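Weekly structure sync - notes
Attendees: PM, LS, DV (DV joined late)
Agenda: review two folding runs queued last week.

Item 1: First target. Sequence and structure tokens pasted below for the record.
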Amino acid sequence: MSAGPNAASPAPIPAPGTGPVFDIQDFSVVYRTPSGDVRAVDRVNLSLSAGEVVGLAGESGSGKSTLAYGACRLLRAPAFITGGSVRYQGRRLAHGSQAVDVLRLRPDELQRLRWREIAIVFQSAMNALNPVLSVRNQLLDVIHAHMRMPRDEARERAGSLLDLVGIPRSRLRSYPHELSGGMRQRVMIAMALAVEPEIVIMDEPTTALDVVVQRDILAQIVELKDRLGFSILFITHDLSLLLELADRIAVMYAGQLLEIGTAGEIHHEAAHPYTKGLLNSFPSLRGPRRELAGIPGSPPDLRHPPPGCPFLPRCSYGTQACTSVDMELLPVATSGDPEHVTACPFVLPDTPPRENPPAAAAGPLDVPEHLRLADELRTAVEPGS
């Protein structure tokens, strides 16, 4: 895993089996608009090892889906990739010891890579499934597009895919509108696994499902991953899901990664204030009762991002020094794991929030506007204000 978004040029590609199967380095994406470029993804580094589950968490609009779709070159104008590399090195790769840079592949090479090597479970299964094709025909389309297989064998494979995700084979004749939300989501997972990919990107696969169906699908995802051996990049705004599912968790905000660590480290030793805010936004099932606390304010305008840490206007730990932090991911000083990294150099897991930030002490002319707004937000949510 790379040290941070401002790291130097990527290291040489490792031999098979010694490095990540999917490696995103210094990756940036902008959306071109008449009023300026929106920096949706800003110099992100993230890796995925064979058989690993990496969770990508953050608010809506933080750049999670843009990162995943951009890495697979699925974005269209006005989105543009402005820098970085995306290296894939799977077991079936025909290039021997050399990984491939996805950003440099020809259209025909991309077509062979997508779904056969890297599959995606898209958001909103009802919109992702074709409403005028049966489940069988949609599964067969994927199979025939990427594998040479006799028709009868392909039909049997389509049935076995439904077996994998716990749907009766009689549903092969059904159309998407005849299925429940949970069944449609399972069909999408079956479709993603149809040609045995090495990586499955799951973009909000359980959104809008009730908690019982959600838990069933998550348990099934883990079982399939263990049985088939693929890697997962799991994207969600619900950090509580990733604490149960993921091996490592990357927290994203305003197009940048703010913290990366194992699920246990993120849960018990969160260092970045934004990560702490996400953890406080859902109830704990064990231990003493605590008051839930949301994160006041809104994400910044990415056409004109503030200097330093983008989370500063909403941060209860913020100081004037945060306006000049370079957002490099560095090891958490109190962690025994050098791969537990954070972009905040001022906060450790046991650092208490500042109850009365002295932002006004510098004088009204010396305090940036977004710091004054942060003070107003904190004052508005304090008890008795």
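Item 2: Second target, run right after the first with the same settings.
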Amino acid sequence: MFRLAIFFLLFAGTTAWAQESSSAPAAAPALPPAEAPATQPGEIPSSAPAEAAASPQPVSEEVVQAEAAIVKSDWKAAQDKLDPWLKDHPEDARALFDAGYVADAQDRLDDAVALYERAVGADPKSFEAHASLGLLLARQNKTDDARPELAAAAALDPGDAGPLAKAKVWRALAQIDRDDDATRASDDLIEALKLSPETEADTLLAASLADEAGEAEEAEKAYRRVLAEDPKSAAANAGLAHLLIARKEFAEAEPILRTALEQTPDDPALTAQLATVLAAQDKAEALPVLQKLHKDHPANADVTRMLAEVLAEAGETADSDELYRTLLTTTPEDAALLVAHGQNLIRLHKYPEAFAAFDKASQVDTANADAWSGLAFAASRVNQPSVTLHALTMRSKFLPEVPSTYFLWATSYDMLHKQEAAATYYHKFLESSAGTLPDQEFQARQRLRLLENKK
């Protein structure tokens, strides 16, 4: 009766990889050995359908004693029994699985993988071996290798391991599939829920999948369902805040994030979300929050980028640009960074440098409208009207014209002595500006008098 006792002793305490993406502790193997049926105490439980389980194989006394040691978490005693037995009986599937379980518990993960693989080879219909191998590989983030093993386990009868063990397999598949196929991940989760009650982690995963699928309303319902049971759930609060931020409901997101941060005050993602919310509401607290976050996580590029953006908005242009320069040393081909750097350079009146930054950004990402906008303006400042016109042409593929672009069209054509085109765009500028840009409007009217008098 040892194997079932091991299962109930250890399975309940195992942190499921499928429920915690951070993975289970190394000393908590995925699936403990399961017990043979009470009427056949010395037989291997079948992983095949019941009709295929009529001819069980005998279990050696050494394996029985090893499993008794496993129940007591006496890994050394179990290994001392299993190693010599496997030396003489290398194809004993049950002993191989037990040895893999012991290695897993001892954090000898390479040995555990090898032993589980041998157990699968010795008994391809072993649910326990496939499941334990798949879950261990998943904990090691070897998802391409883990998925086939978990899929094989999901297709097998779990036998004495029971429906909870198979539910765990389906949950692990859901976690693996979520990045590549949200629909399949949802189907995996449904299979798990057919076998076991819904957990908070299931609801959070369902919410995340709904969010990724663009089903914001369903995601919000799921997050709020978790929070109804656990108001301090950091994951649910963070997920709900993410939805609210996406809808620009910043005032609603702020108290949710503050609640979440009460549980995990140093969480960088939550703090970054709070800083985003505060900045969107023009609250001065955003800057010190981000400065502290950057001090605590100086190598975090996302935090550095956010701080650079907030500094720029606060008018601290030089400090902002220093951070953008640092980021660009690591990712010099990042078009968004190049654009932000270029915008700072414009504010600092460093037009040739800004021209170079925007020019590179437009080459890196030809569909980046902000890069073309910046290049058009910078080119006008360094007296390159032909480049300005090209940049404006490219920009117009992605964004509508605004008064400032009409003015750039007009002045560029004017500099190239294309008087008719210049006059046309000066008129378009004046019609669209309607008193919002008085200095440029004055210049446009003066140029129109000259241009139209020459006709």
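Discussion on item 2: The CA atoms of residues 122 and 252 lie 57 Å apart.
Action: LS to circulate a short write-up before next sync.
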